[in-house]
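Bench notes, afternoon.
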Amino acid sequence: MHKNKVNKYTILGFELSNWDIAGILIGLVLLVVSASISMSHQLTGWQRTLFYDINNWPNYFKTPALVITEALGAGYPIAVCVLVPILFKNYKLAWKFFVTVGGAGLIMEIAKHIVKEPRPVVMLAGHLHERAIETGLTSYPSGHAAVATAMALTLWLLLPKNWRFLSVLWILLVVISRLYLGVHTPLDVVGGFSIGLISFLVVKILPKSFAKKIYLD
């Protein structure tokens, strides 16, 4: 049985496969479209419906959602993803996690300053279940979704194929928890996902000569 051949292309020193090209294009389209719509600063239509469908779930999911959002999309998992490889003296992997998450964080901050979307509690005039208090005033994009996606996809490359569903589950749990807690809109988490995806792929396809210089290869 022949394995499917993955075509690779070299563009400006970047070595990309068909999947890399597709992923970057998808990430860019999702980022541009979600940011453009979010700049209207309105939560209406399908966004509003989907938000309420999840935000109106029973209150007994609150504690699990709070645990998920902090354990899988905040500083704690970043520390774990960086420190565990260091303990096993895999410094390149620790650095790769750090650079990928750092890149996602940089793009996220730029997007927040451009879009300046208020939190759902403002757009919905308080008519929602706000189960967490966020100190940041801007909603788009979701930093938790961006960080979770960047880490989960980096882990994806390390997992056996039969276990890669864990990366997908990681992202989904964080995304759903942010909507349930009432701190982000559907397009906020789409934007966060796209940023995490782009950051992951950019680090993945860096030219080997450059990657070696910054200790990623």
